[in-house]
Amino acid sequence: MNWFKYSSPQTFYPLAGRLVPLFYVTAAMLAAAGIYIGFFVAPTDAQQGEAYRIIFIHVPAAWMSMFIYVVMAMWAGIGLAFNTRLSSMMASALAPTGALMTFIALWTGALWGKPMWGTWWVWDARLTSELILLFLYIGFMSLQASIDDPRRADKAGAVIALVGVINVPIIYFSVKWWNTLHQGASVSLTRSPSMATTMLTGMLIMVFAFWFYSIAAALMRVRCIILERERNSDWVKQMNGPRT
Amino acid sequence: MLSFNSLACERGERRLFTGLNCELAASTLLEVRGANGSGKTSLLRMLCGLLDPAAGTILWRGEEIHALGEQYRGQFAYLGHAGGVKDELTAAENLRFSASLASIVIDMTSEAAALAWFGLGDHAHLPCKTLSQGQRRRVALARLRLSAARPLWILDEPFTALDAQAVQLTQSLIESHLEQGGIVVLTTHQDVAIKAPTVQRIELAA
Amino acid sequence: MSELSLSGTLHSLAQRDLMIAFRRRADVLTTVFFFVIVASLFPLGVGPEAALLRSMAAGVLWVAALLASTLALHRLFAADHADGTLEQMLLAPQPLSLLVLAKIAAHWLTTGLPLVLVAPLIGLQFGLNTAEFPVLLAALLLGTPTLSLIGAIGAALTLGLRGSGLIALLVLPLYVPVLVFGAGAIEASAAGLGAAAHLSVLGALLLFTLVFAPWATAAALRIAVE
């Protein structure tokens, strides 16, 4: 099968349209299964009680936030290196979903922290890194929003995304160092002793649910971006039909 | 020496021109004309390598200019809309730094001569922010006088903001460069009759 | 006329920028005054208690240095872009990354270095032990060039764009490692643990940035000028 056939906005648009409902439905089913397991089936944690159940949302969201950033940087880099428009459009489409995942991770982290340690925010290494990741997403989106010329916006976004992706490990390492330096007791949201199998299954299912949701959302968004960017081309004009 | 094929330009989301071809041999003048917004400056910037064409290739002595990279950049002199003149520096300092950026070695006499030729002898040591627009333009043009070794000159509206005397000086500078085998590509709104062994014209429609 | 050597061109470019900075001394001094003002705001915000201020000294110094650096970044390319000199730089028959490096070096001399020289005074204001000053200076000397190098990428990407906060938004998250290890160096030294590890990391960050940032900045400049 010739995959390159789908590398132009015109051919990708209908393909994405067919895939979106598939991914949304699968995501919904996985989420239903995952939430059922996470909130009803998995046993109560010996140390943390019922509140720990938020990890079924917090951890998948955090993983997706980092994964999406890498994928976004990859598509942006491909767009920059090979001068392909669709790759850059995909990167721009992924950014808001990635930022949303980061925001969910931060929020659920706070909701977890409150019943555990009585504070709405804990400056532990992972949460702080998530916060900085959110800033990186916002920086990418703001830069693209500030540039009028779409091709320049694509390329400039690619540079900042690639610089960000190289820096993410460095930032994480430095935040971890900072955290161990300043924290006496090991109060950490990341401490997860041996997990019961049900918990692990539940979490894994939720990861896939979030992943499929992200794909669906990004595909839908890229369709909008394609329409906007290609609005002067014949195939888009024909789509709307003749004007009355 | 310089040739381009099937050149197309896209700015924002508009196609400005497509299918542009040209071949320029030594001692040729290329005049690019067209209404405002028709892509004249974009075409010149493509020839400089500052802008990537939407389609087509540009060849210098048979090789693609992007492949040549630095080598090509040492073969031409570009004068854009903004002259490349720093207000805080004097005319003499501006010339000296422009020359060194272009890797041209100059000494005090050739620097003074270039400025004097354009009538800036008295103003050579004043900061350029005290000069008029036309005088600043002359400082930018003075750099051309030092670029005789560069075969290709790409000039974007070189006669803007110049008085009659400066126009004449610039005209003779361009003519002597053409006589010595150079190529000059320029855009202009004004009707300046430049004598050249070969003249080609491109008219861009908006 | 013979060709000028690469080092001759770089030297001349740096010299030009320094000359211009000297003739616009106000810009340089503004950066330093901003640094001092920001640092002075903290005691006004948290109270003058000596022990508290001493514990905050390293962090405040570094945050103020970050903000002052960010403020000065627009000076790197904006003026050149406006008067056409940047174009000439892109058209020079020299590797753009090296030309960019020369500009960043000149910029650091007029931005980072003054901060380094003034920092001990701020340190005294916060009751920092004078024994920590060597570490303070070493950390800033290693850290501020890194800030200039990373900042150059942001300055190049935002060339010609409206909106003043954007460059800070892009660049401040990337400054976090320098902040953590820079402030950490001073605190480690004050706690008697020795700052060698922190300073080595700062040095490593500087080397890493020295290799990659000019290249990324050159790419960003070409994109911005298109």
Which properties best describe this structure?
heterotrimer; B: 206 residues; alpha/beta; Rossmann fold; 2 domains; five-stranded parallel beta sheet; four-stranded antiparallel beta sheet; 7 helices; 28% strand; C: 226 residues; mainly alpha
Q: Quick recap of the structure?
A:
Chain A is an all-alpha fold. Chain A has seven helices and no strands.
Can you walk through the features of this model?
The complex is a heterotrimer of chains A (244), B (206) and C (226). Chain A has one domain (23-184, 193-230). In chain A, 77% of the residues lie in helices and 0% in strands. Chain A has helices spanning 9-41, 55-82, 85-117, 125-146, 150-182, 197-229, 234-239. Chain A is globular. Chain B has helices at 40-48, 65-68, 70-73, 91-101, 108-117, 133-145, 164-179, and strands spanning 2-11, 14-24, 28-34, 55-60, 63-64, 76-79, 152-156, 183-187, 198-204. Chain B has a 5-stranded parallel beta sheet, sandwiched between helices. A 4-stranded antiparallel beta sheet of chain B has the order 2-1-4-5. In chain B, helix 4 (91-101) crosses helix 6. The mean pLDDT of chain B is 88. With 226 residues, chain C is mostly helical. The relative contact order of chain C is 0.14. In chain C, helix 2 (25-46) packs across helix 6. Chain C has one domain (6-225). Chains in contact: A-B, A-C, B-C. Chain A binds chain B through residues 83, 148-150, 229, 232, and chain B through 12-13, 52.
Which regions of chain C contain 5 or more consecutive residues with pLDDT less than 50?
none
Helix content of chain C: over 70%
Task: Name the poorly predicted regions of chain A.
Answer: 184-189
In DSSP terms, counting alpha (H) and pi (I) runs of 4 or more, how many helices of chain C? Answer: 9
Principal-axis shape of chain A: globular
- Give the count of helical stretches of chain A: 7
Distance between the termini of chain A: 40 Å
In terms of DSSP E residues, the strand content of chain A is under 5%
